[in-house]
Every structure is written in structure tokens, then in C-alpha cells.
Amino acid sequence: MKNKCIAIIPARGGSKRIPRKNIKEFFGKPLIAYSIEVAIASKLFDKIIVTTEDKEIALIAQEYGAEVPFVRPIELADDYTATQDVINHALNYFENKGEKYDFSCTIYATAPFLQKEFLEQGLEKLKRCDAYQAFSVTTMPFPIQRTFKITKNGRCKMFTPEHFMTRSQDLEEAYQDAGQFYWKNLHNKLTDIPFGNDSIPIILPRYLVQDIDTLEDWKRAEFMYEAIQRQVQL
Description:
Layout: E1 5-10, E2 25-26, E3 29-30, H1 31-42, E4 47-51, H2 55-63, H3 83-96, E5 103-107, H4 116-127, E6 133-139, E7 148-150, E8 156-158, E9 175-185, E10 199-203, H5 215-233
Parallel strand pairs: 1-4, 1-5, 6-10
Antiparallel strand pairs: 2-3, 5-9, 6-9, 7-8
Helix pairs in contact: 1-4
């Protein structure tokens, strides 16, 4: 029997550092359009929804092919709302309507570098095991063992000073959350921390990963996107 999958794209209207970030134009389209279009192109989902409290975001999401079946409650649209609370609200909404899903995929609205092949990998790997989650990750650009903090008196202090003389190629590789998508098996339970043994990493190349939280991030994302498009055209 075919598994039922739902894509949930959270997109509130009150972003502070980049106003109206989720629908700000990025190379001719609202930023959220990229996530919606890749989700549609993947053909993995029985339903693709955007959860938002914002009327303009809702209209744009529908224009690009997503469903907006409800208005997100305002209490789930402030700066302190956890993403998981938003996802649980959406899943509960459909469960109350008699719609149950086997897998959910949270896709961020700020992921213009999202590729359908990685969405496919995440679902396939999750289906073949007893893990709870499969999510996008990428390698750290610099060995975390060589990092340091700045103390209160303006000096430096290494987190792991024993590795000051260790060659970088001899240090263990570290990974970080790429912030693009999070597949969850709704029949399995999380028994470990979210980035622990219950999670499967889907490794993305660093050139396809960029957080977009500040105007500096946005400018870097533009440079990256232009470079990728030039390479595609070669």
C-alpha cells in the first residue's frame, strides 16, 4: 500500500531582520515559491500545504500550487513559537478531519537551493529503517576542534586547546543542520535528541546550503544562486 506523505511549509508574515522575507522577490519569484515548486516537482506528496497567518503569503502560496487549508492561529505566529508546535497544529488539523499521513516533511520557505533528489533520498532512507527523522545536513567549513571563543576581557580561548597542534586533516569531520527539510516517520517515536541516533543525515554539498536570516545572508545567497545558474548554463 502506498505511503501517504504531506509537505508542510511554515511561513509566518512577521519576519523581523528581513521584512516579508518569505515572499521577498528572489530572482524573479517570491522566495517561498522555490520550496513549493520543488515539492511539487518531486511528486512525493499527497498534499503540499503552507501554514501561515498572513493573507498575502497565503495568496502567493496558492498561486504557486500549494494549499492553504486554514489560517494559522496568531498565537502560533510569534517570534517564540517552536516550529514543531506549528507542524503539530497542522497534523492535528488533518487528523481531526480524518486525514492521516505516514510521513511528513517540513520544508522551510527560505530554501531556494533545495533539490528534489535530496528530498527523495530522505524519504527512501527513512522508509527502510526504524529511524524517526531524515534531514538535510552539510559539513562544517572549518574544523570545530580548532574553534575558539572571545572572553569577557577580549582575549581568545580555544574550546579544545589540546588540538591546537593537530593537523586539520587528522581531525574528525563535523556536520551541521542545513535548514532545508525534515522528513518524519509519523509511526515511529523519537527516543533520542532530534539530531541523535533516531535521525538519518542527508548530506548536501556546502554550495547548496545557505541560511537566510539577515540581509548579509540574502546577499550571499544571491551570489551563490547566480554562480550556480552560470554553471548550469555552461
